[in-house]
Amino acid sequence: MPTNLGRFYAATLVIALAILAPPAVAQSTPGVTKDAVVVGGFGPLTGPSYLYGKLFFNGIDVVFDKINAEGGINGRKLVLIREDDRCDPASAIAAVKKLLEQDQVFSISGGGCSNSAIAARQEIEQSGAPWIASGVHDGITRPIAPNIFSVSLTSSIESAAEIAYVQKHGFKRVAIVAMHDSWGRSRYEPLLAMLKDKGITPVADEEVAPDANDSTPQVLRLKQVNPDAIIMLLFPKPGAVFARDAAKLAFKPVLIGQTSISDPVAFEEQVGMPGATANFVTITQVRYMPDSPEVADWSRAVEAKFPGDRLSVYNLNGIGHAQVLAEALRRSGPDLTREKFIAAMDTLRDFHDDTHGGGITCTKEENRCNKTAVWIHKEPGGTVKIVDTTTVE
Amino acid sequence: MLAYLILSGITTGALYALIALGITILFKAAGTVNFAHGELFMMGGFLAYTFVTLLGLPYLLALALAIAGAFVFGIITDRIAFRPLIGSRALGVVLATVGFAFILRGTARILWGGKGDYLSLPPLFAPDPIIWGPLIILPQQLVVIGGTAIVLALFAAFFRLTRLGKMMQATADNAKAARLVGIRIEHIYTLAFGIGAAVAAISAVLMAPLTLLYTDMGFALFVKGFAAAALGGLKSLPGAVIGGLLVGLIESLAAGYIASSFLDISAFVVIMVVLIFCPSGLLGGPAARRV
After folding, report:
1. Residue A143, preceding bond cis, omega within 30 degrees?
2. Cβ–Cβ below 8 Å for A213 and B263
3. Shared domain check, A296 and A148
């Protein structure tokens, strides 16, 4: 009897432990099970900014599919849950709350619209969930938070790259044409400060509204001071209006763009005037164009999974993003926790994925992990070519 | 510089004038403002894009279909957001049209949201600039200015010469009296919503080659058009056109001669000043006086 009672107690103890203490990972780490890691994505899936959300996540999806087909990471399949923030700050907060509280995701990716991402930052920071951001505003990554990283070029890094381009190409008379909304100011203010540090005084500084339908007054004012290069801190719509009006008035300085206009083919079509983009160069985050043979496999994967889509630079951006995320998951080891993932992100040194312009380096002191801008140009009627690369120190 | 600024102001002003015209036509007939007017403009543009670019229909046929489609959307607006609320407080109608604007925008996001960030509609003529004396002009600018003049002339003739136009005028002047003489004013309201939306679509197809198309474009243009209509007097068709052209010219001249940051605010400052001294707008007639 005592023996049976001992066995009974032992069995009871084992059962109780099994119930009360299931594997530590499954219980304590949101979004992680024995066979899956759930990543939450928020960004614009609809509306004019869908490029920074829907296409970006399509890129992540094809990487996840490839990894999952190869058995996952440490035996876990990767799952992406997308939420549409429509580029609206209030919707972004709601989307992030849903992902963190209802869907219980392991980490967050995206936030391609800066204003929305900034609005959602507090929720994510307080949750402790790792966030690899795709928006460009420095307010997403500054002040530094241990769980927030960016593998996209941020606004001040792009501004530094633009100044480096101006200096490298010997432009003496530089003008600025900028939107003065939150997005524009996130680039405009660091640009002005950096120009001042370099001893460069812009010969003109004009504003174009995000929904401008005409920029003839701005072009005429700029034409009077005869700049040889104009830094355009504009979205594609006002950028296209400005380039068209400049061409209309036979004004032909070099137009220097940034990542919001990183599809020169689409931009040429939007400008809609032959030859108007002949002097336009812009920045992209990725080192290949959609038609490059180096990304042909990714092109096929995107077209197979999303019929009707053609590979875009925004897909490529998502592909690089997902590969950085996957690398940090690998380095976190089989007992995945958010703390281990954050520590693993901090070990990335000059990590090269398939698409980003340069190596990805994250440290505790520098969470803006991508500092390489790739310059592209499209001759009218020709193909898009990479013309330069700038790595900002 | 002055000539370019005036030309640019007139082109942009013509767009505002057409939007103001649509707002005014409805206000004259039904005494209400359709806050979904900007979204009807957007829908007209996207319908044209669908027929021209996606379906490859002949340009003029596509434009006619887009305008007809917008006319139908206008009638739907009447049936959903106005007809059920006739007789209720004006605020209810305003909120209903605001709600319908969000429905239209959401629908457009679903239908066209993944086709590109900013879509271009091909211009009616080749985009190469025309050199005219000291001026360089885009052919589409001339199309916009000419189109606006034609639309204005057609509506002036419609209201002065046609029986339907006179019935709309009568309804606007006194709905009860119009009903007593046998005018079915509900039909007039429906027609006014449809015509207002059709004018929005005309302005969209004229301007889209210059402004690009995107699903969130409606509200900002509605605000400018409404400001132009208010400046003109809200019930006057010539007032809407004059108001639109003035807003465009003030924007252009202020941005050219003062600072580019003045472009968006200058017109509103002038409108505020005008409305302080002339509360009925430039051509709105004397304000009603209680006796």
Report:
1. yes
2. no
3. yes
Range of the domain at A79: 27-152+292-362
Backbone angles phi, psi at A216, to 5 degrees: -55, -45
User: Is residue A121 located within the same domain as residue A260?
Assistant: no
> Does the distance separating the beta carbons of A208 and B212 come in below 8 Å?
no
E strands of chain B, at which residues? 130-132, 135-137
Residue A18 placed within a domain: no
pTM: 0.82
ipTM exceeding 0.95, yes/no: no
Taking only the tens place, the pLDDT of each residue in A229-260 is: 999 999 999 999 999 999 988 899 999 999 98
Closest to A50 (Cβ–Cβ): which among B113, B211, B263? Answer: B113
With beta carbons less than 8 A apart as the criterion, state whether A313 and A267 touch. Answer: no
Please list, in sequence order, all residues whose beta carbon lies within 8 angstroms of the beta carbon of residue B289, skipping any fewer than 6 positions away.
none
Give the Cα separation of B290 and B127 in Å (integer): 55
Q: B217 and A211: CB-CB below 8 Å?
A: yes
Asked if residue A357 is part of any domain, the answer here is: yes
Tokens representing A222 are 């700029």
Please tell me the total count of domains within chain B: 1
Distance CA B218, CA B212 (A): 12
Q: How far apart are CA B257 and CA A255, in angstroms?
A: 23
Cα dihedral A186, A191, A192, A196, rounded to 10, equals 150
